[in-house]
TrEMBL record:
<comment type="similarity">
    <text>Belongs to the thioredoxin family. DsbA subfamily.</text>
</comment>
<dbReference type="InterPro" id="IPR036249">
    <property type="entry name" value="Thioredoxin-like_sf"/>
</dbReference>
<protein>
    <submittedName>
        <fullName>DsbA family protein</fullName>
    </submittedName>
</protein>
<keyword id="KW-0676">Redox-active center</keyword>
<keyword id="KW-1015">Disulfide bond</keyword>
<keyword id="KW-0560">Oxidoreductase</keyword>
<dbReference type="Pfam" id="PF13462">
    <property type="entry name" value="Thioredoxin_4"/>
</dbReference>
<feature type="domain" description="Thioredoxin-like fold">
    <location>
        <begin position="65"/>
        <end position="222"/>
    </location>
</feature>
<feature type="signal peptide">
    <location>
        <begin position="1"/>
        <end position="23"/>
    </location>
</feature>
<keyword id="KW-0732">Signal</keyword>
<dbReference type="InterPro" id="IPR012336">
    <property type="entry name" value="Thioredoxin-like_fold"/>
</dbReference>
Length: 245
């Protein structure tokens, strides 16, 4: 498999929305991927998802390099490609993802996550890898949907901040009832699921996707210019137009 590198797009989500720009993503270019970006041990402001109650009801399981949330027999599939350090992924998780979660709770969709870690190579550190490892560990505790959302909600102000340390990830886990345990804590501190992290990045790279977040509805890109994924009501309409409501 060839090595690819990824760069964050220069435009912010807020600017994209305000100015009507169609592109808002952590996207690829032809750079070397040498990981020369500035990195720091920033503190996090720990937050939880406003949809935690809905997310707490959703089952999750590992399927190869993916994590599948919701009823596996749901008639529709929303596929999500993202990186924990990507600010645009955070905006998706705080926007359109809420509409998807509600549909998953109604057993109308299942969500297939491929959670990559390509931004570590750009900005230095291991934040994405550590976060993906912790998310994988949360599956074993039956708490992935809540913890996954809380990690994105707690994302540092800059993706160059190497802030998803083991200590900070455990602070986020404190906000998810029933998640902390000796087994979970050990997995977070010892990177128990490093093989899964590598497999998930490999699946991302081999998928043909070259940016995050990328959201597919039943295998197809949503209609429109792509900005609807950052707004719950707008994405709810997109989903309805795709036959999911």
């Amino acid at each position: 498999m060839g090595v690819r590198s990824f760069r964050r797009a220069a435009v912010a989500v807020v600017a994209a929305t305000a100015l009507g720009l169609s592109a808002a993503a952590c996207s690829s270019d032809s750079g070397s991927g040498s990981g020369s970006g500035t990195s720091s041990q920033a503190e996090l402001t720990v937050k939880t998802s406003p949809d935690a109650a809905t997310l707490a009801k959703l089952p999750a399981k590992v399927d190869g390099a993916e994590i599948v949330v919701g009823d596996p027999n749901a008639p529709h599939t929303v596929t999500v490609y993202e990186d924990p350090r990507c600010p645009f992924c955070m905006h998706y998780e705080g926007g359109g993802a809420a509409a998807v979660a509600k549909l998953a709770a109604e057993k109308k969709v299942k969500i297939r996550y491929t959670i990559a870690s390509f931004l570590d190579a750009n900005f230095g550190g291991d934040s994405s890898k550590r976060a993906v490892n912790a998310m994988r560990a949360s599956v074993e505790q039956g708490k992935f949907p809540e913890f996954h959302a809380a990690v994105f909600a707690s994302q540092p102000a800059k993706e160059t901040d190497d802030a998803f340390t083991a200590d900070n990830l455990l602070k986020i886990a404190d906000k998810v009832p029933g998640l902390r345990s000796p087994a979970f804590d050990k997995a977070v501190r010892e990177n128990t699921y490093k093989d899964f992290v590598k497999a998930a990045e490999g699946a991302f790279e081999s998928s043909g996707v070259n940016s995050s977040p990328v959201i597919l509805i039943d295998g197809k890109k949503p209609a429109g210019d792509g900005r609807a994924i950052f707004n719950e009501e707008a994405f709810k309409k997109v989903l309805a137009d795709a036959g999911i409501s």
